[in-house]
Amino acid sequence: MLKVNNLCLSYEGIETVKNVSFEIKKESITSIIGPNGCGKSTIFKALSKSKRLDSGDIWLQSKSISKIDSKALARRMSILPQSPIAPDDFTTRDLIGYGRYPHLNWTGKLHKKDYEIIDWAITETKLEKLQHRKIITLSGGERQRAWIAMALAQQPDILLLDEPTTFLDICHQFELLELIKRLNQQIGLTIVMVLHDINQAARYSDKIIVIKDGQKYKEGKPYEIVTKSVLEDVFNIEVKVFEDNENGCPYFIPIKNKAVNNEYVEKLLRECS
Q1: Do 182 and 57 share a domain, yes or no?
Q2: What is the number of structural domains in the chain?
Q3: Which residues fall within 8 angstroms of residue 24, CB to CB, at 6 or more apart?
Q4: Is the Cβ–Cβ distance between 81 and 151 less than 8 Å?
Q5: Termini Cα distance of the chain
Q6: Whole-prediction pTM
Q7: Per-residue pLDDT reduced to its tens digit, 92-119
Q8: 177 and 214: one domain?
């Protein structure tokens, strides 16, 4: 459905992403992970057509996204950046309604079908009681649900999410990821998200793509990625890996930061005690 071929990107003349290639299957959930500064968000910007490519290409259903105009692309792909901003006077319903604009004609007027889709998006994200509240009054988790509802109102084939759980407490992180999983399973929405939390990526993804130093290090199913060797090589941590008996999902507990001189730290702690 979405194919990235030999992608090269730079920032201020410095190459930050080098020859990255991967494919996203229809109706799948794919997470992109990697250390800070590895190029994850840069790749996300390229996928969302907000970053110019140095070389390579990105194909959506066998057509280069560079040849798809922005309005047509918005009807097929919805993008939720890391810190989206809405006007202070927008209500939840106003924001969700904005997702219909890629489908409107030159008059820009909403019609019966558009209102029906807005109502559907509100119901899917369980925002009925919050639809007339101003966005600025919502909690972080409620706000994220409103943005996802706006993305749903676009009726896209693919939803791109850049670190959607950032700034949310663990309860709202779980709530949001469960919503994403349900949308994938019930309406067949293809999801691509950048995540920091590797355990969350393992639990909610069909495939994980690992980026290291601007290159694709490895891609595979969660059990192929959440291993001692991969986590030590990419994140420089020693871990213990376990398996959730209920669903076979791997997860890990960090044991030691391999980049830290632990003997030196222990010496300092003894001197301070």
Answers
A1: yes
A2: 2
A3: 1, 2, 3, 30, 158, 190, 192
A4: no
A5: 58
A6: 0.90
A7: 999 999 999 999 887 778 999 999 999 9
A8: yes
What does the pLDDT look like over 10-62, one tens digit per residue?
Answer: 988 889 999 999 999 999 999 999 999 899 989 999 999 989 999 999 999 88
User: And the tokens for 252?
Assistant: 């890990």
pLDDT tens-digit series, residues 186-230: 999 999 999 999 999 999 999 999 999 999 999 999 999 999 999
In a domain, 266, yes or no: no
